Amino acid sequence: MLRAMAALVAARSGFAARRAASSGDVGLAGRAPLVVVASRACAPPCPAARVRAAHRAFSSLPPQRARVACAAHVARARAIPRRHGAGTHARAAASRGGAPRAPRGAAAIAAVRARLGARRFVALAARSGDDSAPVAAAAAGDDDDAAASGSAASGSPHAKPPPPHTAAASSYVPQAPNYAGAGATIPENDAELEPGHCVLIDGMSLVFRSFYGWRNRAGDPLVNAAGDDVSVLYSVAHAILAMLELAPTHLAVCFDAKGKTFRHEMFADYKANRPPTPPEIAEVIPRCVKMVEDMGVPCLSESGVEADDVIGTIARRAVEAGLHVSIVSPDKDFFQLLGPRVRQLRPNGKNYVDARGGSAGARDENGGGDGDGRGDTDGGASDARGDNAQTKKHTEYGFGDPTHRNVTGRGLVPYTEADFRAEYSDLDPAQFVDLLAMVGDSSDNVPGVEGIGPKTAPRLLVEYGDIEGAVANAADIKNKRAREGLGSERGAATALLCRSLVKIRTELNVPTLNPPALELMDIQLSNGRVPPPDGGKWVGEHLERTLELPNAGERWREICYRAKLEAEERKKNRVA
User: Fold this and answer.
1) pLDDT tens string 4-47
2) Spatial distance between the Cα atoms of 1 and 16, rounded to a whole number of angstroms
3) What CA–CA distances, in Å, run from 342 to 311, 394, 416, 436?
4) Do residue 214 and residue 322 come from a single domain?
5) Are residues 142 and 49 in the same domain?
6) What single string gives the DSSP state of each residue in 431-443?
């Protein structure tokens, strides 16, 4: 593109070129592009390699012409970005707070045109036979393009920045400043809304982890006097109690309903690789649901959709009502819902490190091995001395202290939007849907796009924004397998199908999950649920005598007593 004018740039910048300019020898500079054209076919892609090749190619020319031609070739080599194109340089400059830098070749062409005059410049451009866009714009006197390039190179505040890259336009819209999470934005009347903390628990994950945790554990399971296995009930009860000790305003446990979902209609092999649910788990799920409901915690499920969609819908409604949301699940699918007001509590997380330098996962192995969710044997006093910056960040978000013993003691680690961006190349959480669609999800039998792995997918999304952008620019993708995968009709269709499979629905049009059938106050714990009217006496006796879980019964009564004191304190404050 810059074959003809790069010679003029070099002719005005190098020592030999300055001599030619002072003597008015324009013909020498005008003939230099012919040499550049001859050597361009064998020019290596690396700028340094181009310089070495130029010296070899021009060694047979007369000394003066060799210096000018070689300088022209070097100028052209340095004007071309090394690997990533002009878009990368523009984004890097924007991240530093400065204006994006125009390509040096285009800026120099505009400067040469201004120096030589339009008529003389047009003659040289026509002589070289170069019809590139920058040359044509500068020769025709296009003020919007040529003048903008020159002013950008000179650092003018009125410079017109070049586009971030020359790729086809992407349909992805970056995350808005007022984005809150779960596809919702911060409500306009947020200051008038009553703050709160909504905790949504993935019930199926909780039951499965409890079941296999006890099965893989050495020793006998917990059995009551009647000979029934109560191991899963024990773990689920203490997990719910641990969340109640965080004193959330809203709490619900979401389960999958029986039968297939709309995703099976879209893709017949969806989750086809999973073995059937063990009969022991199928038998204990109804018992867990009844126990949780007896504790005053609502259990939600909806036929035809998954628990993930129920959580996504309730999370969006909670955010729109001014609440902060914590999703308790190890499932990475929930990354797409993260935002300033939506976080995830993941078991055995690795992103949190306390003041002692130990991770939450390490404490999970060393302390609290009884499976009751209580964490270290010191009552969590040492955990309360966590990282102050981490504590401040989550406190500002309205989640409370993330170093609370019941969050970190058993490895339930807060995973936030900042953690996601640090792990996935500063992508928006909403882009995780496209990432997962391209990579695939073996646990759900989502195939993904052939040739794209967890390292390639983030790079494509950083460059092109979403699947549509990557497909539109498939021919420009450097990775051969990724280029072939997204460039084919089959690969593009597979990517779009996979995105529909992994996308969590946040706006289910289901009457039982929307008002008036289900109001947010129906999952509000302070709405006569905890403590119940009898102060938690019946549930405590039920846990102790019927289920034979004495530790859970004692812990429940402590929660009810603390909730009663807090309710009385709030009542006094309202009266005052």
Assistant:
1) 444 444 444 443 434 433 444 433 333 333 333 333 334 444 54
2) 24
3) 12, 11, 7, 19
4) yes
5) yes
6) GHHHHHHHH-BGG
Please, which residues bridge with residue 333 across strands?
Answer: none
CB 256 within 8 A of CB 212: no
Instruction: Give the list of residues 6+ apart from residue 467 with CB closer than 8 angstroms, or none.
Output: 434, 437, 438, 492, 495, 496, 499
Structurally, how many domains does the chain consist of? 3
Q: How far apart are CA 396 and CA 380, in angstroms?
A: 22
Pair (314, 206) in one structural domain: yes
DSSP state of 414: E
Fill in the DSSP letter of residue 160: -
Please list, in sequence order, all residues whose beta carbon lies within 8 angstroms of the beta carbon of residue 475, skipping any fewer than 6 positions away. Answer: 483, 487
Query: Alpha helix locations (H) across 368-404?
Result: 388-397
| DSSP 3-state of 524 | strand
Percent of the chain with pLDDT over 70: 59
For residue 298, give the nearest of 198, 180, 369 by alpha carbon: 198
Taking the model in full, what pTM does it have? 0.66
Residue in this structure with the two tokens 């076919």, named with its chain if needed: 41
Q: What are phi and psi of 406, to 5 degrees?
A: -85, -5
Range of the domain at 490: 429-502
User: Which element (helix H / strand E) includes 563?
Assistant: helix 550-575
Predicted pLDDT at 359: 41
Nearest to 401 by CA among 446, 349, 352: 352
More confident residue, 142 or 97: 97
Tell me if 316 sits within 8 A of 506, measured CB to CB.
yes
Tell me the three state secondary structure of residue 362.
helix
One domain, residues 10 and 77: yes
Strand 250-254 and strand 197-202: the pairing is: parallel
As a whole number, mean pLDDT of residues 444-458 equals 95
Element (H, E) at 300: strand 299-300
What's the average model confidence in pLDDT over 147-152? 36
Nearest to 75 by CA among 153, 21, 16, 10: 10
Question: 486 and 515: one domain?
Answer: no
Contacts of residue 327, defined as CB under 8 A and 6 or more positions apart, other chains included, come to 200, 202, 311, 315, 334, 337, 342, 343, 344, 345
Instruction: Evaluate whether 413 touches 360 at the Cβ level (below 8 Å).
Output: yes
The residue type of 522 is D
- Beta-strand pair 324-328/197-202: parallel
Q: Quick check: 235 and 214 in contact, CB under 8 A?
A: yes
Q: What are the CB-based long-range contacts (under 8 Å, 24+) for 208-213?
A: 208/281, 209/235, 209/330, 209/347, 210/235, 210/236, 210/239, 211/278, 211/280, 211/281, 211/284, 213/371
The DSSP bridge pattern shows strands 413-415 and 342-346 to be: antiparallel
Q: Structure tokens of 426?
A: 């500063």
